[in-house]
Write a structure and sequence with these properties.
The complex is a heterodimer of chains A (913) and B (334). With 913 residues, chain A is mainly beta. Chain A has three domains: 117 residues, Phage tail protein beta-alpha-beta fold (3-Layer(bab) Sandwich); 94 residues, Immunoglobulins (Immunoglobulin-like), CATH 2.60.40.10; 640 residues, TonB-dependent receptor, beta-barrel domain (Maltoporin, Chain A), CATH 2.40.170. Helix content of chain A is 9%, strand content 53%. Chain A has a 22-stranded antiparallel barrel. Chain B has 334 residues and is mostly beta strands. Chain B folds into two domains: 146 residues, no CATH class; 139 residues. In chain B, 10% of the residues lie in helices and 39% in strands. The chains are: A mainly beta (913), B mainly beta (334). Chains A and B meet through strand 49, strand 50, strand 54, strand 55 and strand 56 of A and helix 1, strand 1, strand 2, strand 15 and helix 2 of B. Strand 55 of chain A pairs antiparallel with strand 1 of chain B.
């Protein structure tokens, strides 16, 4: 084929000069000629020289036989028709100088001047340089050059490392001064003349790229950008503006995208959303093996953990070693720990909103990882190109195999297994509206000894529809369904017990975003969650068990919220955000509620009334929740911010163990268990140094919690229809100071956070039985005054990075025996101290992680990296909890329990294609 | 095993093997509290009420409970009868067995007035009749013997609560030409707490309740008697013992609830916030003897053997040298 083209081109060059001179009207040209024993090619050659016309043809199409032709005053087109008769060939005349001879079917195309100019250049280039230069990207088919001289370039821009498509990236053809920006699928399109062009590709937080393309015909172009910080000595631009931390109105907000998380040290070889969050000031956990996390001294259940629009009742795998989020599915995660926007409600402490990726609308790609404990695989692909995409991922552990393959009795009796799978389909509809449907499912089985097995699972279905309503208004409508189930099997003779509980909800919300002008950004909307809880069921664990079966009735409740919030930019120095949320909660029948004699401690013996509701509303609670924040810029690089949130929580997790367990019951508010309420104040000073390369902040916060749930000593919490007799109501004060220093770019970068945080409680009931620690203030289970996190990262070069993570925190409060006594010859019954009077030993740990990435070549399809990490490098046996045992009849000894009590090396191989 | 496997093994075994470590845990002292240890039962008296003070103690220290003397101690019933206890040794007060024997159906309250004038009362404790033991059996399990009973938790508005205290007596044949047989008391670990309450059981029939575990050793060579006291205790006592069981047998599981104070049934009448330790217990009791012979337990080794002249164990030369030993068989001995 090349040969053919080349011949046409050679012809072109020969003829072009003549074209300039003779511009005749070929239609009226008359021919007088006598061709004897000549081939068609020879005849065309002769005509070119005699009449100043150009013939374009593929020599192989023309018959080689020689023949005779005589023309006398024959119109030129008629002559050509005669010559081509019977060959299946036709011709067209272009601009009065060019005659294109081709198969009749080919002749419908209109050839432009640009086509011929390009053909000439193309042939010159081919003569000058042999071989194709690597840095030129070819668009279209060189053998099928667009006859119009113009080509439609479609393309998309992606993050080179994550394959995430980039919205709002600009692609600019420098010579033509034509540009486009990428749409919601990361796609763009424009028309370019065929030929060579320089494209400038830019996206915020990415390194600008200039590439040369050679356009032949319509074609598709995949442009990849490297995230800016990967390049050394580069000024970094962030997806949020570089000074976002200083200039945003919100205080106490932390946004991490998955790329940032991937640069933090991995936890047991895995990137993990929640573990990354614990590096932030004000976020901590109760220790290894504890479900969930604590924000600013709050309980685990006071965090609203969301994926898309749905929320989790339990967000942990293997009791908190990993979170339920598959890192390959995550786009970014935002934690609101100070001012919680009015859009969110229902939890006191924080909101963690995790946004999932959309599948690639243009091409198939995948990624995954293989580790010692677990593996994962994710793929994404267009279903209808540029319209519908899917992304789906699965993760699973095989630590059962690891446990079982080791010949240690202790391990053989323990096991941990989990999987989760995600799928999301996104569809772009007319009018720029978008529909997405996602499914999530996870399962865990955790067996501690041969006797105790926990199982839990989560299922979430989420449907969301987004639509712009004009330039200034947009809306989204979403519906979610979720089911969480957990069980505990405890085998042990007569007391063998199975326990099971469930929590489900259906949620719907409708949000609007209205931006009437540059000064206002107004959010408003409504939300409703219908809960359907199964508080629990106890059944005998085996045939010899004497445990009585017991089942609690289901509970239902409807939580609603309506909100409006306006982000107002008053001047360049001052911005405020004012919002309010009105939340309501309706307990729904059927339900049985008990009234207790207020003159006596709340026990089953003091029930005065039992009220049975067949249906309808059993209780109503409501609250007005103002939210406000203010930012005042001191300089271009420094600001002071203030935030306030009022929050109500209508669903609480009833947990009394050192760690929240998967079977801890979720309890709806009712006549005996009022909702918890919080006031949350934050004040912060934010200052960026060295062109926003270094971010510093100081924040202080103060939280007041009313109707806080606490527990009597040694409460009976499982399957208790009189749960309120085990609960106490108290008040809480959480306050603290957070310092943060981050260097986000450069060879040496890292984070440093220090948190001083107190979490104090007071429970002062009317009776001694309903008072804790004699009514004095005491430390909550999560009071850890000092918390330091240091995360230096050394980017050795483009491919190698070494990161460290050091963390220190004060030991958690605990209760210890202070004396003992003898009754009926039972020699020593321990007497414990006031609740949480003591502390377990301090926690500290160092992790190291080394990542080697495959080379950054643009066209490499399979990219991979190895991560070697050591968790707890110096073998610290951190105490998870402390317990006490009597040594014979006299001495009491203290023991600490460590979950990961020594260095834990892991290797993970990550890949993408 | 390849290198990879070795690495896994190394990693895991390092991590999980050493989960529990003994640590120092300094504990500050707390002010002393009054401790009450008293029982009034349907058995013949005298009944004992022991008063003491808790002692300062910390991890790694012993405690000594100094007795509390010169208190006025009496028990009242719901018919307004009062029974005074007298101090017979420091801190130990006894009733007059001739005038006071508790009976089923009565409710008793302990009252203590200390020498410094503080008044302490117990909650009123009612005595309900103890149900009979329907069956007793044992199981041998890896060198230990486990005793199970079948009984009932009668349905009552205030609930039924049982407690078991078990001790033992065994035959011992010394290795002399005389060949005396002694009957020796065996004190079973008093830390064993066995209770059951109707709130935990759906059915009136309590089947296969485990009440004691004992390692099978030379004491079981000939014949062993488990003397099982089944007691019908009050709800307060049941809560006390159940909490004590929970706390003393708490292990290293991270899911154990945090330990806490055990609330007894004594309180300061004038200052309910004062913490009073201990328990005033009332119960009806039935005693059952359950014999197990060595042959049923796979013939545990004899305590003495070989040449009588070679015996070094004094108990094998003279079984009366063993504590709590007698050559007179108890009247229940079969």
């Amino acid at each position: 084929m090349n040969k053919i083209v080349l011949k046409i081109i050679c012809l072109t060059i020969v003829v072009l000069s003549a074209v300039q001179l003779s511009a005749q009207r070929l239609d009226s040209l008359k021919i007088d000629a006598d061709f004897k024993n000549q081939s068609l090619a020879e005849i065309f050659n002769k005509m070119e020289s005699d009449y100043g016309v150009d013939f374009y043809f593929d020599p192989t199409l023309l018959p080689a036989e020689k023949s005779d032709h005589t023309f006398s005053n024959t119109p030129f087109p008629k002559a050509i028709l005669d010559l081509l008769a019977g060959q299946g060939l036709g011709f067209s005349i272009y601009n009065d100088y060019a005659i294109i001879v081709a198969r009749e079917s080919e002749l419908e195309k209109e050839y432009t001047r640009d086509f011929f100019v390009f053909k000439e250049q193309q042939s010159q280039n081919q003569n000058q340089t042999s071989g194709v230069r690597e840095d030129i990207i070819v668009v279209g088919n060189p053998d099928n050059v667009s006859p119009t001289g113009k080509a439609n370039i479609k393309g998309y821009v992606e993050d080179k490392n994550s394959d995430e498509f980039l919205i709002g990236a600009t692609v600019f053809a420098v010579e033509q001064a034509i540009g486009a920006s990428t749409n919601e699928t990361g796609g763009f399109s424009f028309e370019l003349p065929i030929g060579k062009h320089t494209l400038e590709v830019k996206s915020i937080s990415y390194k600008d790229r200039e590439i040369t393309i050679q356009v032949y015909s319509d074609g598709e172009l995949r442009l990849e950008l490297l995230e800016a910080p990967v390049r050394l000595d580069e000024v970094t631009v962030y997806s949020d503006a570089p000074d976002q931390n200083v200039n945003s109105t919100t205080v106490g907000i932390e946004k991490l995208d998955i790329k940032q998380m991937k640069k933090l040290p991995s936890f047991l070889g895995e990137v993990d959303v929640m573990k990354s969050m614990t590096l932030l000031p004000g976020v901590s956990t109760a220790g290894e093996g504890s479900t969930g996390f604590n924000v600013r001294g709050g309980n685990v259940d006071q965090n609203l953990v969301m994926q898309e629009e749905a929320f989790f009742f339990n967000s942990s795998h293997i009791l908190g070693l990993y979170s339920l989020f598959n890192p390959d599915m995550v786009k970014n995660a935002t934690l609101y720990k100070g001012m919680i926007p009015a859009k969110y409600g229902g939890r006191l402490s924080s909101v963690l909103d995790v946004e999932m990726k959309e599948g690639n609308y243009h091409r198939f790609s995948g990624r995954g990882g293989v580790g010692l404990l677990a593996s994962r695989l994710t793929f994404e692909a267009p279903i209808i190109k540029e319209k519908t995409s899917i992304i789906a991922g699965i993760r699973s552990s095989y630590s059962n195999w690891v446990f079982n393959s080791i010949d240690l009795e202790r391990l053989n009796n323990s096991s941990a297994f989990y999987y989760d799978l995600n799928a999301k389909i996104s569809h772009l509809m007319k009018n720029n509206s978008k529909l997405s449907v996602s499914w999530y499912q996870s399962f865990d089985r955790f067996k501690i000894t041969e006797n105790t097995t926990f199982e839990w699972n989560t299922k979430i279905l989420n449907v969301k529809w987004k639509k712009p309503l004009g330039d200034k208004l947009s809306t989204s409508l979403s519906g979610s369904w979720s089911n969480y189930g957990s069980s505990l099997q405890d085998i042990g003779g007569n007391n063998s017990t199975n326990f099971r509980q469930e929590a489900s909800y259906i949620k719907a919300r409708n949000d609007y975003l209205f931006a009437p002008n540059a000064k206002h950004n107004i959010n408003f909307g409504v939300e409703a969650v219908m809960y359907d809880m199964f508080p629990g069921e106890r059944t005998p664990g085996d045939n010899i068990s004497l445990v009585a079966a017991k089942e609690l009735p289901r509970e239902k409740g409807l939580e609603t919220g309506i909100y409006v919030q306006d982000d107002i930019s008053i001047s360049s120095k001052l911005a405020v955000s004012l919002g309010v949320r009105f939340s309501t909660f309706f307990g729904m029948g059927p339900d049985t509620q008990f009234n207790y004699d207020p003159e006596f401690p709340r026990t089953t013996g003091n029930i005065t009334d039992t009220i049975n509701y067949a249906s309808g509303i059993t209780n109503t609670f409501y609250g007005l929740e103002p939210r406000a924040s203010l930012r005042f810029s001191l300089t271009d690089n420094a600001s002071i911010k203030f935030g306030y949130s009022r929050t109500y929580q209508y669903v609480n997790q009833i947990s009394n163990t050192a760690s929240v367990t998967p079977v801890d019951q979720w309890q709806l508010s009712n006549g005996n268990i009022p909702p918890q309420k919080g006031h949350n104040f934050s004040l912060g000073l934010f200052n960026n140094l060295k062109d926003n390369k270094i971010e510093t902040s100081i924040e202080v916060y103060y939280k007041i919690i009313d109707d806080l749930l606490e527990f009597k000593d040694l409460p009976e919490l499982l399957v208790n229809e009189h749960l309120e007799t085990e609960l106490l109501s108290g008040i809480g004060r959480n306050y603290g100071l957070e310092l943060s220093l981050r260097k986000k770019t450069g060879v040496f970068r890292g984070w440093f956070s220090y948190t001083y945080s107190r979490s104090r409680r007071q429970v002062k009931g009317n009776f001694p039985e309903e008072t804790i620690n004699q009514g004095f203030w005491y430390n909550s289970n999560y009071d850890k005054p000092h918390d330091i996190t240091l995360t230096p990262v050394l980017q050795l070069n483009k491919r190698n990075s070494l990161s460290f993570n050091f963390t220190y925190s004060t030991g958690r409060p605990t209760t210890a025996p202070v004396t003992k006594f003898r009754v009926d010859n039972v020699p020593s019954i321990p007497v414990y101290s006031l609740r949480n009077q003591f502390r377990i030993p301090d926690y500290h740990r160092l992790d190291i992680s080394y990542t080697i990435e495959s080379s950054h070549r643009i066209n490499q399809k399979w990219k991979s990296s190895w991560t070697f990490s050591i968790y707890n490098v110096y073998n610290r046996r951190n105490a998870y909890s402390v317990y006490f045992e009597q040594d014979g009849f006299s001495q009491v000894k203290a023991y600490k329990v460590s979950i990961l009590g020594s260095a834990f090396p892991t290797i993970t191989y990550n890949f993408k294609f | 095993m390849n290198k990879f496997g070795l690495l896994i093994l190394l990693a895991i075994s390092f991590s999980i093997n050493s989960c529990v470590t003994e640590i120092d845990f300094p504990i500050e002292s707390i002010p002393e509290r009054m401790v009450v240890d008293g029982i009034v039962s349907t058995l013949p008296g005298p009944y004992f009420i022991k008063l003491s003070r808790s002692a300062t103690f910390g991890v790694g220290q012993d405690n000594v409970q100094p007795p509390l003397s010169e208190a006025q101690v009496k028990v009242k019933d719901d018919l307004n009868n009062e029974y005074t206890f007298v101090e017979v040794e420091a801190g130990t007060y006894i009733s007059d067995s001739a005038s006071f024997r508790a009976v089923v159906g009565r409710t008793y309250t302990l009252e203590v007035v200390t020498s410094n004038g503080r008044t302490y009362n117990s909650r009123p404790e009612k005595i309900n009749p103890v149900p009979a033991i329907d069956d007793i059996r044992f199981e041998l399990d890896r060198g230990t013997i486990r005793i199970f009973v079948d009984t009932k938790l009668p349905r009552r508005p205030e609930g039924s609560y049982l407690r078991w205290r078990t001790d033992g007596k065994y035959e011992w044949l010394e290795n002399t030409f005389a060949g005396k047989v002694c009957f020796i008391d065996d004190r079973i670990d008093f830390n064993t707490i066995a209770v059951a309450g109707s709130p935990d059981f759906a059915d009136e029939n309590l089947l296969g309740q485990e009440i004691v575990i004992r390692p099978v050793d030379k004491r079981f060579n000939r014949k062993y008697a488990f003397n099982i006291n089944q007691q019908s205790i009050s709800e307060n006592a049941w809560r006390f013992w159940r909490a004590a069981d929970l706390i003393t047998n708490q292990g290293s599981s991270i899911f154990d609830p945090p330990p806490a104070k055990i609330i007894g049934n004594m309180f300061n009448v004038d200052d309910p916030s004062e913490e009073v330790l201990g328990l005033f217990m009332t119960y009806d009791q039935s005693l059952t003897h359950f014999f197990v012979s060595g042959s049923e337990l796979g013939n545990p080794p004899a305590p003495c053997g070989g040449s009588p002249f070679g015996e070094t164990d004094p108990g094998c030369r003279n079984c009366l040298s063993i504590n709590n030993s007698t050559t007179t068989p108890p009247d229940y001995w079969e």
